Amino acid sequence: MIRVQGGVRLDGTVPVSGAKNAALPAVLATLLTDQPVQIANAPHLADVETALELARALGKSANWEGDRLTLSGAVSVTRAPEDVVRRMRASFLALGPLLARLGQAEVPLPGGCAIGARPVDLHLRGLAALGAEVSIEHGIVRAQGALKGAVVHLDYPSVGATEQLMLAAALAKGVTVIVNPAREPEIEDLCALLSSMGASTHWEADRLSVAGQPALGGASHRVMPDRIEAGTYLLAGALVGGEVRVANIRPQHLEALLAKLSQAGLDLARGDDWVRITREGTPCAIDVETAPYPGFPTDLQAPWIAFLTSTEGRGVVRESVFESRFAHVPELRRMGASIDLEARTAIVLGPTPLQGAAVKVPDIRAGAALLLAALAASGETALDGIALLRRGYERPVDKLRTLGASIWET
């Protein structure tokens, strides 16, 4: 449990860790080779440990040295363990590499946060277009066949489907063209890793080409900074007040958030690898709608709603990526927030003074929103379910303490 004594101004610099959403596909990309792959700037998170558990179960060895991971060894198992895959949705990305390496794979349908339906049909149709025979029996996806390059049209720019097809195409015969791929920075990070392993990737307008290779080799790769963690700490400064400098980041990955913060009246300064936010007075409410990159990130929707409780006016937040991602709203209401829900839209009236309360973390990003609300609330807040928070944020208690927050674990 995390306890927070709220109402303390935040000041100082907080460093951002490596991106969880880049580290997870990077770990599973190592299934494509027997040679050692080093992944630097890897965050120590529960989800990364789950990915390593999966890689080890499939035959890899994996070791930490500081923030550097080294994975090596041959993949020898074609079936991913169900208990691991059901813990984390990204585990489903093992399907493509196993199929490409061994000609067959069995991976259970994935689990993860309860934020709405996230079907894998785009993954499966894409692999079928590459020549795989795919079936689902008793919750297990079975795929087999030799993969050949093809043109795959994605109905939606799904991050997971794009990553799945990239991983499979890296060892397919010929060139695979993914039309309407996801354009998130984490996709480019995976391109960089695959290129360093010997694959060939090329962007052109609305398509991504991957030229398959007979084999891939070892590589060294540095994971990009976590843009969602960076945005969360910027929103902490925007909500609580003070002067917060978020370092070790790529500001260009945060343009949608920074634009909204500027419209709200926050003072922003930026350098090559940092952004500083200063709040003086009461910002105005600004509407947002989540969208695939470069739009406003769905993973920052919950922290943005927490921020809106401190703004002047009526802020409307429409969630267009997932249909069920407002689990944080009832908990924020317990703390005094005025929020109405209409289908996939949240309407926040502010400013409303938040009060400390006992709240439960329902999912990773909702946990971040509740943590931010606790920092602003009067009195003490107790957050239960922090194991979910640790899936996505490295050492949040220590980092917030460096900014002056009164926060501790019990």
Detail the topology: elements first, then pairings.
Blueprint: E1 2-5, E2 10-15, H1 20-29, E3 37-40, H2 46-57, E4 61-65, E5 68-72, H3 82-85, H4 95-102, E6 104-108, H5 121-129, E7 133-137, E8 140-144, E9 151-153, H6 159-169, E10 175-179, H7 185-196, E11 200-204, E12 207-211, E13 219-222, H8 227-240, E14 242-247, H9 255-264, E15 267-270, E16 274-279, E17 288-289, H10 301-308, E18 313-318, H11 328-334, E19 338-342, E20 345-350, E21 358-360, H12 364-376, E22 380-384, H13 386-390, H14 396-402, E23 406-409
Parallel strand pairs: 2-14, 3-13, 9-10, 17-18, 21-22
Antiparallel strand pairs: 1-22, 1-23, 3-5, 4-5, 6-8, 7-8, 10-12, 11-12, 14-16, 15-16, 18-20, 19-20
Helix pairs in contact: 1-2, 1-7, 4-6, 5-6, 6-7, 8-10, 8-12, 10-12
Defining traits:
23 strands, UDP-n-acetylglucosamine1-carboxyvinyl-transferase, Chain, 26% strand, alpha+beta, 410 residues, 4-stranded mixed β-sheet
Mind explaining what this structure looks like?
By secondary structure, this protein is α+β, with helices and mostly antiparallel strands. It folds into two domains: 201 residues, Alpha-beta prism (UDP-n-acetylglucosamine1-carboxyvinyl-transferase, Chain); 199 residues, Enolpyruvate transferase domain (UDP-n-acetylglucosamine1-carboxyvinyl-transferase, Chain). The chain is 32% helix and 26% strand. The chain contains 14 helices and 23 strands. It has a four-stranded mixed beta sheet with strand order 21-22-1-23. Strands 2-14-16-15 form a four-stranded mixed beta sheet. Helix 4 packs parallel to helix 6 and helix 8 runs parallel beside helix 12. The longest helix is centred in the middle third of the chain and has 14 residues. About 1% of the residues have low confidence.
